[in-house]
Amino acid sequence: MNEERAPVSDGQAPANDEQAPVSDERVPVSDERVPVGGERADALAGLLAFVRRRVTGDYEVDEFGYDAELTDKVLLELLRPLYHRWFRAEALELKQVPRDGGALIVANHAGTLPVDALMLQVALHDEAGRALRLLGADLVYQLPMLSHLARKTGHTLACPEDADRLLRQGELVGVFPEGFKGVGKPFSERYKLQRFGRGGFVAAAIRAGVPIVPTAIVGSEEIYPKIGDLPALARLLGLPYLPITPFFPLLGPLGLVPLPSKWLIEFGEPIRTDDYDPAAADDPMLVFNLTDQIREVIQQLLDQLRLRRGHAFPPFL
Amino acid sequence: MTHTVLVTGVSRHIGARVASVLAADPDVSRVIGVDTVPPPSLTRDGGISLGRTEFVRVDLRSPDIAQVIAAADVDTVVHMSLVSAPSRGTGRAAMKEHNVIGTMQLLGACQRSATVRRVVVRSTTAVYGSSPRDPAVFTEDLEPHDGPSHGYAKDAAEVEGYVRGFARRRPDVSVSLLRFANFMGPGVDSPLTRYFTQPVLPTVFGFDPRLQFVHEDDAVEVLRRMAKEDHPGTYNVAGAGVLLLSQCARRAGRLSLPLLSPAVQLLGAMVRRTGLVDYSPEQLRLMSHGRVVDSGALESELGWKPKFSTGAAFDDFLRSHGLRPLGGARQ
Predict the structure, then answer these.
(1) DSSP 3-state of A193
(2) Where is the stretch described as Disordered (chain A) (predicted)?
(3) How many domains does chain B divide into?
(4) Does B46 reach chain A within 8 Å, measured CB to CB?
(5) Beta carbons of B327 and A3 less than 8 angstroms apart
(6) CB < 8 Å from B in window 64-83 of A
């Protein structure tokens, strides 16, 4: 209502007859300033339309709760400075990511807080044009705020049903098979892949017949170097671990600022699973072997990428 | 083939609509409607014309229903009589008795009957519960982590157990079990529709559940088809797509008031006494974690899709109640 009325009340200030010429005059003025004014007006109109859609609830979310517009326009927008300026992240070998259809991204997990998940999402969304649908721990979905932010940005619970559903819908699904073991490992074990769960992700890929893209993320290990743990307090709070870093909890909230390490994300050659019979997903030996193979590929990628990056905090260290 | 249909729960909105649609069908020779209370009068309470439905007032908890089935040679039973919220006067115990004992009596009567060939039972997607540990989308064969532990959903889960038992004992009878998402539409009066007509919507802080609705017209159509053809099995029934609670509130032009979950529980206990809105623990879990089901099995079985998506069903409800978003209608 209010938005519709706005231009009318502008025109009502002069006499009614003059309304048309006034608006005519305005048009060439904005044309003279050519791109700047026009762009600005377009941007403003776009913003108003966006706000209007959000306020009136006129947008779509998918059955998992993924709000593509909110993710692109607001949530990823907040992460982009972190990706480009703070971590100077670079995505390599993007051609390995299938342009469409279902695929499974399998990556290493590190950094005490799962910032790597967010950066991987920015990389794939902005540079490969694909929405990443991560499979997360159930802890995420029990916590207020985190649970609905995770759903709105397209992620869901790590369970065979959801993985299968997303892959069959042709989505790009991401998993961190190390889970808490990986993200919460001490700094001394950086870039050493932990055990890969039960290989549920391999079974899901075989069942859906989608390729597995091994992915290495370098840089995440240095953002919060975990040098200690407070297991008793963590148990009390129901958390998998409570880290001590050189700056946390020493500096309080300031200690939550991630260190500006240099990031590289490399996608490896996809491993096809469509040669297998879908029933092979229930063959534990095959699933374990494939899981090990993928783990080795990622470890190799990780070692090469780490050499290629060099110092974690260039140009200082 | 279909001759005589028995519909239970005809004094409630959807039950009455199903009875009237079947009564208008020339292939159906007789429609018998039963309920514990007489249907609301047409003029005063906005009741629905039952057409040539013969109404019989039967307390489902008593064995009288067997006599009705035997006397009329009923061949199709549509069991709609599931109460979703305790009424102000009688309370939870009566509700449970009505739902569970009522179904047991009805199924017992069907088991003895030589004429009954088809049984259609209305259930609810609430049997899946709402949990952060369950898959995002439920299919019919999924076993939920935390099944319902009390209230309407528990009743429905027990009713389903008896229905499955009946289907095992009478394999010659076609048994359809329909799990409906929350009904939505101009005529629907449920705890959820009453929730959305409040001026301020209390929500659980930090959670924005996914909700799914089925329009009453689609629900009636599904039940009509199920009553006329054999479609044995269990089916989810829901409109396509989902709405987030925040999105519903925005579309309704209502402010939401996020409260920490203990506060919602406290408020719920207070408000429940008024009988207006249901803030049961079940409802609270739904308001935290939401619930979405896959109705693909129904769609391929019937070769038909609900006409209203979840969003369209909700918009139709809003239109009929004169609710609109802040800043005017959506395009």
Answers:
(1) coil
(2) 1-29
(3) 1
(4) no
(5) yes
(6) 64-65, 67
Q: Which residue of B has its CA nearest to A142?
A: B132
Asked if B105 contacts B261 with a C-beta cutoff of 8 angstroms, the reply is: no
CATH code at B146?
A: 3.40.50.720
In a domain, B217, yes or no: yes
Of the residues A67, A141, A159, A164, the best mutation for testing chain B's interface (the one with the most B CB atoms within 10 Å of its CB) is A141
Which residues have C-beta within 8 Å of that of residue A23, sequence separation ≥ 6? Answer: A11
| Portion 124-143 of B in contact with A at CB < 8 A | 132-137, 139, 142
| Complex confidence, ipTM | 0.88
Three-state SS for B85? coil
Picking from B132, B136, B207, the nearest residue to A63 by CB comes out as B136
In a domain? residue B266: no
A55 touches chain B (CB under 8 A): yes
- Most A CBs within 10 A among B131, B137, B243, hence the mutation to make, goes to B137
CA–CA separation, A127 vs A120, rounded Å? 10
B259 domain residue, yes or no: no
Token pair listed for B234: 């269990």
| Chain B positions in Cβ-Cβ contact with residue A156 (cut-off 8 Å) | 136
In a domain, B233, yes or no: yes
Does the beta carbon of B248 lie under 8 angstroms from any beta carbon of chain A? yes
Interchain CB contacts (distance < 8 Å): A and B? 99
Query: Please, how many CA atoms are within 13 Å of residue B298, restricted to the half-sphere of its CB?
Result: 27
Residue A277, burial from CB neighbour count under 10 angstroms (0-12, 13-18, 19+): exposed
317 residues of chain A, pLDDT tens digit each: 343 444 434 434 343 443 444 444 444 444 444 455 678 889 999 999 999 999 999 999 999 999 999 999 999 999 999 999 999 999 999 999 999 999 999 999 999 999 999 999 999 999 999 999 999 998 999 888 999 899 999 999 999 999 999 999 999 999 999 999 999 999 999 999 999 988 899 999 999 999 999 999 999 999 999 999 999 999 998 889 999 999 988 998 899 999 999 999 999 999 999 999 999 999 999 999 999 999 999 999 999 999 999 999 988 76
Closest to B207 (Cβ–Cβ): which among A54, A57, A147? A147
Q: Helices B261-272 and B281-289: crossing angle, nearest 10°?
A: 140
pTM: 0.87
